[in-house]
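ligand=zinc ion
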Amino acid sequence: MLVYSTMSRTKEEFEPLKGRIVKMFVCGPTVYDYPHIGHAKTYVAMDVVARYLHFKGYSVFYVQNITDIDDKIINRAKEQGISAEELAERFLRIYYEDMERLNIKSVSLFARATQHVDEIIEQIEDLIAKGYAYESNGSVYFDVSKFGDFGNLSGQRKEELVAGARVEVDENKRSPEDFALWKKMKEDEPFWDSPWGRGRPGWHIEDTAISINYLGQQYDMHGGGIDLIFPHHEAEIAIAESITGKKPFVRYWLHTGFLLVNGEKMAKSLGNFLTIREILKSYDPMALRFFLLYAHYRSPIDFSYDLLNEATEAYDRLDNSFRKALEAQDTEEREEKELRETLESCRKKFFDAMDDDFNTREAIAALFPLAKAINQSVLTDDRAVTELKEFIGEISGILGLFEHRGEVSVKPEIIDGVLEIRRILREEKRYDLADMIRGKLGECGIEIEDRGKETKWRISQRSTDQ
Ligand SMILES: [Zn+2]
């Protein structure tokens, strides 16, 4: 299997650091607003990467960080007259709900920045001790001049990067490209105590504190939107490798292409800012997921409702054919040569494409001739139909599409018991574990919704619409 890494700018043979275990990290959202369709593109793509690795027999541990303290959160909370914590909590719930609707199921652990401030402070102390960071007027900065490899991921020289990037003006920095690890508290802002006084973490070090904590000093895969390469991922590498002295911090860097809306970059000021919620008011979440996957993850996507309408039709066509195959019963033993041949060639094309840097575009394209063959078939070939059902099961698991699950039956007492444990965890502010329970229940088709101290649950729509 080949995987493209932004660092080497080539497709490389995939080989995890340790046996059959894949450790994977993807930059999560800053929870201050509704997730938009650009988020959907990245997280659906990375979900399929994790699902495919799982299908190939790897044990995948996939961590996403949640930025729940940040300038944007603080400013938005002030506008709305609520606390930053309250705002972050609200949009984190919304994020989980939207991801669940898009059938994103592969994240093993969501880790919040505010739950890892101790680890962040430890890393900063370590960087200062090793001479890579300096304290200045209550804030701490990473000294970029001390890290020679800065710029390797984006492939540009440091000077070019600084000239082109929006650099925060800050008189406390020694040099404009230095970045904040710890920000001194401003008035009316949330704060944590630290050896440098009251303040809060910078953005980049959140990720390294969380990833090193859960995945170790070196791990296999790091994903995120292409816009995060500079300065965010360069900064992560600089921090991690300065602390550990081990290179490379990450084996494969995966970046998803831009999402444009009607040919333009999405921006609130242009009025083309599309949230996932807005789209799902009138579209099936699976059609949106299909639309996003019918492109290679590194390719840009130009979103328009016309294209989404086309994708919806194409998805329904495939889905109906696969449903016909799955519902076929008591097939005879009359050989259908064409169906067998089409299935074989489709299967080969599908897996060849997925093995070639997770090329979902080509993989999905291979399914159309199969759907056509199913439609033209009377499904009398017992062996072909069995293999067909098996193949549809496999691609459903990999793509997170075409799922026709039976009715979910549950014992309410069990769910209530699990939710009671989750309530205690939340009281003890062990949100990571509480969120993990949410995820696991979601996998079983149980959706939960927190309303203040109470939690409601229901069997999710998708599981029952057989
Ligand atoms: Zn990040």
